[in-house]
Amino acid sequence: MAKSVPFRKMYGLGNDFIVLDARKDPSISSASDPKRATRLTDRKYGIGCDQLIILEAKDDATCGMRIINADGSEVGACGNATRCIGGLLFEEDSKAAEVTIRTQAGLLRCSKGGAADIISVNMGEPGLLWNQVPVKSEVDTLHCGTAVEGGGLTDCACCSMGNPHATFFVDDAEKVPLPEAGHALEHHSFFPERCNVSAVSVSKDKKQIRMRVWERGTGMTEACGTGACATLVNAVRRGLIGKEQNYTAEVVMDGGSLTITYAPKGSGAPNEGCVIMSGAYSTAFSGEIPSALW
Questions:
Q1: Would you give the distance in Å from CA 127 to the centre of its chain?
Q2: pTM (2 decimals)?
Q3: What DSSP line would sit under 82-137, residue for residue?
Q4: Which residues are catalytic?
Q5: Measured over all CA atoms, what is the biggest interatomic distance in the chain, rounded to whole angstroms?
Q6: Stretch 171-183: mean pLDDT, rounded?
């Protein structure tokens, strides 16, 4: 490597990222090469992270964002990374009222929250049809029945938040053997593009949802922003969260909590049909990539 490549280590609720900026130097985007990416994301021999994030210049957005999983696969969406990059863009332009981020999943709009480290993101509309998730055959994605089962989990609800999610509603999410069952569920033939898997339980007062998550291409993680969005979407679809809760709940993950709102189309609520995610972001440290990792 003839030149130094700076990076930032950022995280949202323990979901951690290496952030590389290729907006002025497009050659940095070569970090997306699977061999190079997996060297960087390796927690023993590299810098280590759940996902590698590459910022790129875009004419129709404040910036573009590419998302590379720890296994080198590229994906279309990551909610926690979106908040981190939204926060970074507001640090660059503190007067901006809104910043936009172009991803494979679409254009995401970010705004400042009530505190300096809080970012709200309009994640757009969820994909609710079987071929939008996608799953392998036409099915009611609200109740997939016995189409995919494992680890005592059955009858998931599925949707897409720019990436596929399966939400399993259970009485006690803590008791689900997700670390053992997650890999098989992610790779189940029902999901042609693999899947993120969440085990969730709704509190009696319907104000909180406990969620544990196995992320596609990464495994068990502290938090998943799109997973939290999918969980709330599917909870609203099943009538577990509704108008009395303003279509909103705090989704509690191992790394912390996100506030998610999803008012269905026709509800008359603000931003109906779209998912709004709000939560904190942080920068851990910055540095330069060692030549051995490039």
A1: 15
A2: 0.93
A3: HHHHHHHHHHH-TT-S-EEEEETTEEEEEEE-SSTTEEEEE--PPB-STTTTT-SS
A4: 78, 224
A5: 59
A6: 97
